[in-house]
UniProtKB/TrEMBL annotation, chain A:
Pfam families: BPD_transp_1
Entry protein name: Multiple sugar transport system permease protein
Subcellular location: Cell membrane
Organism: Jiangella mangrovi
GO terms under cellular component: plasma membrane
ABC transmembrane type-1 domain: residues covered: 66-259
SUPFAM superfamilies: MetI-like
Organism ancestry: Bacteria, Bacillati, Actinomycetota, Actinomycetes, Jiangellales
Keywords: Cell membrane, Membrane, Sugar transport, Transmembrane, Transmembrane helix, Transport
């Protein structure tokens, strides 16, 4: 029996550990490759940050691209939070005309494939002067965050006992006062989840900027690095690309490790209700 | 009142574009001129005539079937492996899940270097092992390009599906398994008779997400294979992009969008029905 257990534990470790290695190796490799010497990169000999220097000097420069990405992501997070905080409050606490239709419409965004709306959105943004603008891009990215975030904020508000706000209402607070002074603190975890998802999505998205942005100085990181690899004097730059991957991945990995609990919980409440 | 911003937003950036894409698909609308003539069936008829359209549909379907099967089987195995709390399980879960936090574009760029004959580590490793003599052309042939993309996508998403299945597995009460064991059921029997049926809602959810996601595949092919070699990995969504921004034909890009939208709507409704039924059982 003990032998059987030992075999079971060993095979668990060999199998599970081997699989874990296969998942970790590409991640580790890209970090190492970005600083190690290779013929097809700026880092010719020894270890160092020459690839990162190439990246810093590429076209509009890394700081610009980092800023573009950060700006779009933060705007997306703000738009998503404002819309879903107010909307979630409304859906959870008030009856108003068109309530069900609106909620259905928001859920219907899930049914419409991402890429199919980008062509008309491109035209529409052109009409209102927001094409090729990071502000417009953030609006597009917000659209696809709405179903999840509205759903999430609605259940967050519904989970707050009504007594809490009733006492505040009696004390002479308006409904907005209740939201601002009381409820925001109660639905805080939901807001972190919603913000995290919106940030990760906006930071990583590739197809929306590809459609919406044509001025290379306004590219977010994902687009800049995808175009950089082909453009460095006609030759591909593998090293700078991997340095770019590291820079794109780092914020996501850090955020994920810090907010893992929220990610999993938010994900579960979304997944189980389908 | 509090819903007004959301309502306005949805009207402006969801309902209006939906109407617009329908209207565009029926009109002549080259990208650079403002031509607006009615061109009703032509945009749609043009799609089927496109030399690349049917191969793209075929490729997208083939890719979807393989990815869905591989992802489901692998992530189910992973979920079963790490479902019980024991030493080291937390580490394994995190390791499997880490690639999920990367974007698909970053992952594609990563694997583009990983597979490259210039700096990629796999070819030297295989040669060191003596398995191959010369570099494998990871994205150089249609078959290898498909396999390489699938490896990338599975690496990126397996942890995500593992999480869905893990949540499902943990909602199955332990008593059910104990009762089965008392009745003399083997582990294999209880997996097929208890775990799989009770896990149906989670499996259905994985199915919906992976089918929809794969049918709309774009980033991985645009970045990793660029649709090649010989257009062998061009997907339907890549065709929308090509029509709009390479051929500057917004009308047919819109028509293609409408077709994709309707097809996916039908598929989604069918899948949601299935999921609903699974949840009611």
């Amino acid at each position: 029996m003990r032998l059987q257990q030992a075999i079971g534990r060993t095979s668990f470790w060999v199998f599970g550990g081997g699989l874990a290695l296969m998942f970790l190796i590409p991640l580790i490799w890209t970090g190492v490759a970005s600083v190690s010497p290779h013929g097809a990169t700026a880092q010719q000999e020894g270890y160092g940050f020459a690839n990162y220097r190439t990246l810093t000097e590429y076209d509009a420069g890394l700081p610009t691209y980092l800023w573009n990405s950060a700006y779009v992501s933060i705007l997306t997070v703000i738009f998503t939070l404002v819309l879903s905080l107010l909307g979630g409050y409304a859906f959870a606490r008030f009856r108003f005309p068109g309530r069900d239709v609106l909620f259905l419409l928001i859920i219907a965004i899930l049914m419409v494939p991402y890429a199919t709306l980008l062509v008309p959105l491109w035209v529409l943004m052109g009409e209102i002067g927001l094409r090729n603008s990071l502000f417009g891009l953030a609006l597009v990215l917000t659209l696809y965050q709405l179903p999840f975030s509205m759903f999430m904020m609605r259940i967050s508000f519904e989970a707050v006992p009504r007594e809490i706000e009733e006492s505040a209402l009696v004390d002479g607070c308006g409904t907005f006062g209740v939201l601002r002074r009381v409820l925001v603190y109660a639905v805080w975890p939901g807001m972190i989840t919603v913000g995290l998802f919106a940030f990760l999505h906006a930071w990583n998205d590739f197809i929306a900027p590809l459609f919406m942005i044509n001025d290379s100085s306004r590219y977010p990181l994902s687009l800049a690095i995808a175009t950089l690899r082909q453009q460095t004097m006609g030759a591909v730059d593998f090293g700078a690309t991997q340095a770019g991957v590291v820079i794109m991945a780092l914020p996501c990995l850090i955020l994920f490790v810090l907010l893992q609990r929220h990610y999993v919980r938010g994900f579960m409440s979304g997944a189980l209700k389908g | 009142m509090y819903a007004a911003p959301a309502a306005l937003f949805v009207l402006l950036f969801f309902v209006l574009p939906l109407l617009l894409v329908g209207q565009m698909s029926a009109s002549e609308r080259p990208l650079l001129q403002g031509g607006q003539g009615i061109n009703f069936p032509d945009n749609y008829a043009g799609i089927a005539d496109d030399r690349l359209f049917w191969p793209a549909v075929g490729f997208t379907l083939k890719y979807t079937v393989i990815v869905v099967v591989v992802l489901l089987v692998l992530s189910m195995g992973m979920a079963l492996l790490v479902q019980n709390r024991r030493r080291g399980v937390g580490f394994l879960r995190t390791a499997y899940f880490l690639p999920v936090s990367l974007g698909l574009a970053s992952a594609s760029l990563l694997f583009w270097g990983f597979y490259s004959p210039q700096i990629g580590p796999i070819d030297p490793f295989l040669q060191w092992l003596g398995i191959t003599d010369e570099p494998v052309r990871w994205i150089g042939t249609p078959t290898m390009a498909l396999i390489s993309s699938i490896i990338l996508v599975v690496w990126k998403f397996a942890g995500f599906f593992m999480l869905i299945l893990l949540v499902g597995l943990q909602s199955i009460p332990n008593e059910v398994y104990e009762a089965a064991r008392v009745d003399g059921a083997s582990k294999v029997q209880s997996f097929f008779r208890i775990t799989l049926p009770l896990l149906r809602p989670s499996i259905a959810l994985c199915l919906i997400i992976s089918v929809t996601g794969s049918l709309l595949a774009f980033d991985q092919f645009f970045i990793l294979t660029n649709g090649g070699p010989d257009n062998s990995t061009t997907t339907v969504v890549m065709m929308i992009y090509r029509e709009a921004f390479r051929r500057f034909d917004l009308g047919s890009a819109a028509a293609l969008s409408v077709v994709v939208l309707l097809v996916l709507l039908v598929i989604n409704i069918a899948q949601f029905r299935y999921l609903r039924r699974g949840a009611d059982d």
